[in-house]
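Q: I have 407 residues here and want to know how they pack in 3D. Can you give me a structure?
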Amino acid sequence: MTADVTPTRRRYAKSAVTRDRILDAARDLFAERGFRSVSLRDIAGAADLSHPGVQRHFRTTADILDAVVARLESDNERWLEETGRMDDGEAMLPALARHNAATPGYVELFTVLAGEATAIGHPAHARMRDRYADLRARSREGLDVDDGAAASLAAVSDGLQLISLYDPRIDVGGELEAYLGWRRTGATGSSTPVPPGSVDETGAQALARLVGDESGYATGRARRAALVEAATAHFAANGFHDASLREIADAAGMAKSTLLHHFSSKDELLAAVLVHRDRRVAELYGANPDASGVEQLRGAVEGARRNAGEPGLVEVYAVLSSEASSASHPAHDYFRRRFDAARAGFAAEFADARAAGATRADLDSARAALWTIALWDGLQWQWLYDRDAIDVPALLSRTIEGMLTTA
């Protein structure tokens, strides 16, 4: 009996090692390129296996993605139980953030997936939607907060993880501790991230330079506009890597050669999409540069309300900002510059509000700016998964108004 069982155990052990190798390779590829642009052959090559060798364990890339996510979530559950953090209330979120940051590939994968899987047809859409519902439920129970506060806590955590991939100086666990402390006492404490410096050129300005001006014949401008609209929809649905130039051209009713006449590469088309989005958001936001810091901060809430009326703009931002968190992505520098500029802008608005006596005297403007941006981005992800449960403008207003107090 022993002689028969031992070889079987060895085969199981060898199979488990191979599965782990496949999942490790897939995790890294999904984090770098997104799910849709990774094939079984890509995973096989990264795992140093043959294509049939991978298929002996997993039939499709969707099966592999499900296994990768399930393994990471199972590891988290086990860690929470073993460390007694499950019922640790306020201390759980920062501790879990530090644990995730130390887990290879966790933050990178879930950041990409959170944005990419907002598309309803994505194989991880239902899992991510349910995951957010579970996170909100745990926060409600563990911290004894209402639905809005639970959603905001999950949003700040996600947003901080996203921004940290563009600025590794951010200590996500430390920021979560400070944010929870502010909710309890009203004090922000001293900022741990290095405050953003002046930005010579924003991401939008850099891309506008790349794309060039919009002069030329009306027909050419109309074709470029149609291609940008089609590309925006495709990037929102499929991400950048898996979007096909031929499919984009077909959606715009043009030949691929016509597309390449107006945009010499997919990178240039991506630049045009981002410039278009920034211009459209600026039109919706309607910011007044002469407004006070308090007025501008409250105006951001109105901007969030207008964004909800054009979900396509939110979708393409959610997908591309998460996908571009990989340093190899062609839009990585754009979003890095954009986050720097946004942090600098919000910090200036909070500083102006503090100088006007509209906030506590000890409000740290750089930290308040970071939390506000993290909250907004994280809430938009949750909204794309459950539009009935999440009211982005209301929750954003609740936090901003909580900072605009002298109590």
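Q: Anything worth noting?
A: Confidence is low (pLDDT under 50) at residues 198-204. The CA atoms of residues 359 and 405 lie 5 Å apart.
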